Task: inverse folding
């Protein structure tokens, strides 16, 4: 059974930093895409950052503050979040895709206080 294990969420003051980590199970299929989505209270889930075939895409709201990176050998994707703002608050979900289907992590809470 494929699992995505997330870590790194928490409470931080505005202007602070957090790093999220997600490790996916090893499968016979290569992970084609890895990334992060988030869902704020009362809002739809939105893409934050995604790395696909070595191409990175970041949401306009975070592109100057967040960085996504992958460790292929460890099936791990990291999200470094700097200069956090209260509007970054939400549940952050790890996302991975292979040639068969999409997979989601259980979500980790990020709360940024003003």
Result:
């Amino acid at each position: 059974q494929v699992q995505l294990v997330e870590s790194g969420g928490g409470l931080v003051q505005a202007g602070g930093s957090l790093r999220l980590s997600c490790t996916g199970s090893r499968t016979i299929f290569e992970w084609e895409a890895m990334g992060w989505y988030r869902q704020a209270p009362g809002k739809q889930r939105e893409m934050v950052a995604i790395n696909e075939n070595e191409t990175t895409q970041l949401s306009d709201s975070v592109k100057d503050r967040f960085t996504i990176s992958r460790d292929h050998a460890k099936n791990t994707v990291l999200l470094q979040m700097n200069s956090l703002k209260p509007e970054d608050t939400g549940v952050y979900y790890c996302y991975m895709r292979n040639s068969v289907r999409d997979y989601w992590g259980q979500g980790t809470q990020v709360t940024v206080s003003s």
About this structure: The chain has no helices and eleven strands.
